[in-house]
């Protein structure tokens, strides 16, 4: 219903640009994780450990300078939004979605707890995937399990593999549906 009420500019320019942006962000994040996997295989310094004595402003956290830092911020924001969307899309937690003007207090508390857990896990998630090396306010690199090569390697490989699988599945299904629609078959 919302698609039918959208203006032609929105349908013909806005939606495709949004889809291309999402595809680009997903592709860039998978590419960064794949480079991190190669880094893990070649260099022990790629493990997500805490940065020792690196003051803010003295050390660049990206090899691409300001552009790389901005890209890291955009990717972390994208991962945050996609993890929240994925959380609420899972069959187990769809009942937790708030309803307009009719959300009980227990459901509000459950949403607050869920969002707090997701936001607390985001710095460790982005460090483990190699998207950023910045520690924010906490020293998240000091977790003992972040020094386990096999766990970090499998986590990165799992993310890259499953994200690529989802991307290929979504894109191929969308293309397949459009081809079926274009040829008039049901």
Automatic annotation (TrEMBL):
The chain crosses the membrane at residues 12-38, 58-88, 108-125, 145-168. It is a multi-pass membrane protein. Pfam families: LMBR1 (PF04791). Its main location: membrane. GO terms for molecular function: transmembrane signaling receptor activity. It is found in: Cell membrane; Endoplasmic reticulum membrane. GO terms for biological process: receptor-mediated endocytosis; Wnt signaling pathway. Keywords: Cell membrane, Endocytosis, Endoplasmic reticulum, Membrane, Receptor, Transmembrane, Transmembrane helix, Wnt signaling pathway. It comes from the Eukaryota. GO terms for cellular component: endoplasmic reticulum membrane; plasma membrane. The keyword Transmembrane helix applies. InterPro entries: LIMR, LMBR1-like_membr_prot. Belongs to the LIMR family. This is LMBRL protein.
